[in-house]
Write a structure and sequence with these properties.
- The complex is a heterodimer of chains A (about 450) and B (about 80).
- Chain A has about 450 residues and is of the alpha/beta class.
- Chain A is about 45% helix and about 20% strand.
- Chain A contains 10 helices and 14 strands.
- Chain A has a 5-stranded mixed beta barrel with strand order 1-2-3-5-4. A 5-stranded parallel beta sheet of chain A has the order 7-6-8-9-10, with helices on both faces.
- In chain A, α4 packs parallel to α5.
- Chain A starts with 5 loop residues before the first helix and ends in a 10-residue tail after the last strand.
- With about 80 residues, chain B is of the alpha+beta class.
- Chain B has one domain.
- Helices cover about 50% and strands about 20% of the residues of chain B.
- In chain B, strands 1-2 form a two-stranded antiparallel ribbon.
- Chain B is elongated, with a radius of gyration of 20 Å.
- The chains are: A alpha/beta (about 450), B alpha+beta (about 80).
- At the A-B interface, α3, β7, α4, α8 and α9 of A face α1, α2 and β1 of B.
- β7 of chain A pairs parallel with β1 of chain B, so a sheet runs across the interface.
Chain lengths: ~450, ~80
């Protein structure tokens, strides 16, 4: 009997399966849909009794990934493949046709194809989004999440922009007509330099108005550039294809619509420096030339030439004075506006800081008490040690002090005393006065 | 007088920097450019430092377009 290795057996099964099934059509319900980071899409098809694992490779762009949902009934076309390392077989899907609820998918694909053929998506007709839009028309629900997200980003980046919202139904009956009408009205009004068509995330049905022909045509006909931002990253709508630019989300639309003013302010400061240096350099040059001119011609020419030059120099000086005064005036205005915004920031910071300081205060109090306690212990210890050294405690241990009278000078060497000197001897308790009867020198002992 | 556009002001300022740096303008013109540049800088900075984004609502009525301040959108749900 032949014994196979795992690879040999797998290889034979693979050959068998792949050879006996040319590309096939399979029908079933999508389940366990999981898009992978590689952008391949993995899912299973199931019916009542069995399950079949399926893969759509990234390259097969005919299939619009965002429209595939769990629970969808589909017919798929592809070939079977056995993945030897995983010991699994899968259907490599080339075509996918939904039915039942999937008719939205078909409508999407059909409209996309039709409009694409008409040239509505041509890259050549895409207009650039203005670098500095000042008034942005927004087609969205006035109280929806999209305008809130968009406004938040724009507030962070560029506060002088005006957002003109044309309140619009963004889902359900009448939404598509309203969106299209809004785009036309903003064009008729004509005072925006950019239109953002946007709504937040939702189900495929909720996003559907943005897949309608009437909306696509309104975007196409807009004389003002249109930026579309519908749903989340993965949601592509027909509106996205027609618009001059597409942003993944309402926030992303804010980012691509306006530039960051912090960056710009920095740029302005640089330009100011350049202008200032260029003019200052010129004035310096001229002054030098003037000076050398006067020196070389002044003596040999009539005085009026010198006067003329002086007059010119005076005029120049006056002009520069005005310029400098204006400059100071400008700087003052800038400082003033800066100081108000600083004051505002400061108030905000102050509130934040106060809370932080209060917390710190508590911590510090605790630390302080702890340290105090420790220090006290040390002091206590030192006090004990000190009292050991004090003469009183020495006396307590039986020593006594001898003072020479009358000056009460402490005597530590008998050489300082003579016979008949008066002394006072201090004990721990009490003292005596005495007279020296005999002096014994240290050497005699 | 029509208000100058931000983008145009910025471009003009860039031009002025270039002209001044290339250095073949007369002193008189240089000073004029300098003054113009200061004006533009002031204008641009004032715009950039504005405190708030204005959100307005546009409605079309029988009499024409109507623009009113939109109330700050509240979080719903």
């Amino acid at each position: 009997m032949r014994i196979y290795t795992v690879s040999e057996l797998t290889r034979e099964i693979k050959n068998l399966i792949e050879a006996s099934f040319p590309p096939v059509w399979v029908e079933g319900e999508i389940t366990d849909l999981r898009p992978a980071r590689s952008q391949h899409i993995y899912f299973s098809l199931k019916d009542e009794y069995a399950i079949l694992s399926c893969i759509i490779f990234k390259g097969d762009q005919d299939i619009t990934a965002s429209l595939i949902k769990n629970g969808m009934m589909v017919r798929v076309y592809g070939e079977l493949n056995l993945y030897e390392k995983g010991g699994r077989y899968s259907l490599l899907v080339r075509k996918l046709i939904p039915f039942g609820r999937g008719d939205l998918y078909i409508r999407f694909e059909e409209l996309k194809k039709k409009l694409g053929e008409e040239g509505l998506f041509d890259p050549s007709r895409k207009r650039p989004i203005p670098t500095f839009p000042e008034r942005i028309g927004v087609v969205t629900a006035l109280h929806g999440a999209a305008i809130r997200d968009l406004a938040k980003i724009i507030k962070e980046r560029m506060r002088w922009v005006e957002l003109i919202v044309r309140d619009t139904k963004v889902q359900g009956v009448g939404a598509k007509e309203d969106i299209a009408q809004a785009i036309r009205e903003l064009n008729e009004w004509g005072l925006c330099d950019l239109i953002i068509v946007t709504r937040g995330g939702g189900s495929i049905e909720e996003l559907w108005p943005f897949n309608e022909e009437i909306v696509a045509r309104a975007i196409y006909e807009s004389k003002i550039p249109v930026l579309s931002a519908v749903g989340h990253e993965i949601d592509y709508t027909v509106a996205d294809f027609v618009a001059d630019a597409r942003a993944a989300t309402p926030s992303a639309a804010g980012e691509s619509a306006v530039r960051d003013s912090r960056e710009l302010l920095l740029n302005l400061s640089n330009m100011e420096k350049h202008i200032y240096n260029a003019v200052a350099g010129r004035v310096r040059n001229l002054k030098e030339r003037l000076l050398s001119f006067e020196m070389s011609y002044g003596l040999s020419r009539p005085c009026n030439i010198i006067y003329e030059r002086q007059q010119w120099a005076d005029e120049l000086g006056r002009k520069l004075d005005t310029v400098i005064q204006n400059l100071i005036l400008n700087i003052n205005t800038i400082l003033l506006s800066l100081s108000t915004s600083i004051a505002r920031e400061r108030r905000h910071l102050l509130e934040k800081t106060t809370t932080a300081v209060n917390n710190l205060d508590e911590i510090m109090k605790e630390r302080f008490l702890h340290t105090l306690y420790k220090k006290r212990q040390v002091v206590e210890l030192l006090k004990n040690r000190l009292s050991d050294l004090s003469p009183i405690s020495v006396l307590e241990r039986g020593y006594s002090i001898c003072f020479k009278l009358p000056e009460e000078k402490v005597i530590s060497n008998s050489i300082l005393l003579n016979k008949d000197d008066k002394v006072k001897i201090q004990f721990s308790k009490g003292a005596v006065e005495a007279k020296v009867r005999k002096v014994i020198r240290a050497n005699d002992q | 007088m029509k208000e100058i556009k931000f983008e145009d002001a910025l471009h003009r300022l860039e031009e002025i920097v270039k002209e001044l740096e290339e250095g073949d303008v007369s002193l008189d013109d240089a000073l004029k450019l300098f003054e113009e540049g200061q004006g533009l800088l002031l204008f641009l900075r004032q715009k950039l430092n504005r405190a708030e984004v204005k959100i307005k609502e546009l409605t079309k009525t029988d009499e024409g377009f109507l623009l009113k301040d939109a109330v700050e959108t509240k979080e719903t749900g």
